[in-house]
Design goal:
The chain is an alpha/beta fold. 23% of the residues lie in helices and 25% in strands. Helix 12 links the parallel strand 5 and strand 6.
């Protein structure tokens, strides 16, 4: 948002510093002086009522503060886009701003709190105690589900998080590589985490064991994006979660244990990302699906696309394992070799492949399956 600024007008500048060559004139009466110093008729902007908290002291700079003129709800939305500490500091800008942060939607991200880890926990509690508005976004380290379970449960029960829209329990790791999987130490999350099921729109759940009795009875009517990372869950429970999200658009499954086969039937899903030891993924009916991404290129998987008429992005198809199979309609690709090409796939425009050694003939043969392809991403596997 651009903030307008303006200096004094030409008339006010002349009155403040008259021309040094102008003849001296006798002093005018008080009433005449008032007229002379404001010769312009009152404009709608000048006659407009001052916003709350702005004192009527004649300061032109305050009159030019366009942001402070915005309604409280709009200012609250702006503040909620800031990191939590920056948002809290807006209270010192002016009397107009003193109450705004406490009532604005809360955006609390553990990663940006400026303190040591132990002090960050204190800050989280202090922010939740001081804030009186609705919750918008909460990001906490997933390791706290085990190491600080009682504290996490208390935070999640805070009224400052009522109507929470985004929840992220993220995995901490030192590099940008995928996290190490430790399924045997996963614990169930506190029950308070599911009190937001009716309001959540974005959810990332990591490093936990989702119990059947808990997830099979929960609905997420407004959830648009769901990510499960390093989670232990049964197939029936995972299918229950997906079917309980009638508006789900994006699904990410990374390092999921106890899942061998996943069937997708969703009228709303637009993007699916898989990085797991799934043996089989079946897209039975996904009329809105546009992106199907197999993020781990070295794992074995059979992918069957029965009905996805809008599928535009596909990858990554890998040559690493010869028994990896991708079936789209009647087109069958095993590894990177075309086994059957009864009909071509005209909807796919972006394709990613992974090769042990670049083979031009193999690539040309593969492209016959996708005659409308616009972009091809190819990467060689480096074997040690």
């Amino acid at each position: 948002m651009a903030m307008e600024s303006a200096g004094p007008s030409a008339n006010s500048t002349k009155l403040a510093a008259p021309d040094i060559h102008e003849e001296a004139r006798p002093p005018l009466p008080a009433a005449a002086t008032a007229e002379a110093t404001d010769p312009e008729p009152a404009t709608p902007e000048r006659s407009q009522e001052l916003p709350p908290g702005v004192e009527e002291n004649g300061c032109e700079e305050e009159l030019l503060d366009r942001i402070s003129r915005l309604p409280d709800d709009t200012l609250g939305e702006i503040i909620s886009l800031l990191p939590v500490m920056e948002g809290a500091r807006t209270q010192i800008l002016a009397p107009r701003w003193r109450h705004l942060w406490r009532a604005a939607p809360l955006n609390l991200d553990y990663r940006v709190l400026p303190a040591l880890l132990s002090a960050r926990d204190v800050l989280v509690g202090a922010v939740l105690a001081a804030h009186h508005g609705a919750g918008r976004r909460l990001c906490l380290p997933a390791r706290h589900l085990e190491s600080r379970a009682d504290a996490v449960d208390a935070w999640l029960r805070s009224h400052a998080l009522d109507n929470l829209q985004e929840l992220e329990l993220y995995v901490c790791h030192a590099t940008h590589s995928w996290p190490i999987l430790i399924f045997e130490h996963l614990v169930p999350p506190p029950a308070s985490i599911f009190r937001f099921s009716s309001t959540l729109r974005v959810a990332t759940i990591s490093n936990c064991h989702l119990l059947d009795d808990t997830v099979q009875t929960i609905q997420f009517p407004h959830l648009k994006k769901l990510a499960l990372v390093n989670v232990r869950i049964k197939e029936v429970s995972l299918h229950s979660i997906i079917s309980g999200c009638p508006g789900l658009e994006c699904l990410l499954l990374s390092s999921i244990s106890r899942i061998c086969c996943l069937w997708i039937n969703s009228p709303t899903l637009r993007s699916i990302g898989i990085r797991s030891n799934l043996r089989e993924l079946v897209i039975e009916d996904a009329p809105s699906l546009q992106r199907l991404l197999h993020l781990e290129m070295l794992m074995k998987m059979h992918i069957s696309v029965i009905s996805a008429p809008k599928l535009e992005t596909l990858g990554c198809i890998s040559e690493q394992y010869s028994d990896c199979r991708v079936v789209i309609g009647s087109t069958v690709i095993q590894g990177l070799r075309v086994v059957s090409l009864a009909t071509v796939v005209r909807t796919v425009k972006i394709l990613a492949i992974h090769m042990v050694c670049f083979d031009q003939d193999m690539v040309v043969d593969l492209l016959r399956c996708f005659p409308c392809l616009e972009k091809l991403y190819a990467k060689e596997v480096i074997l040690h």
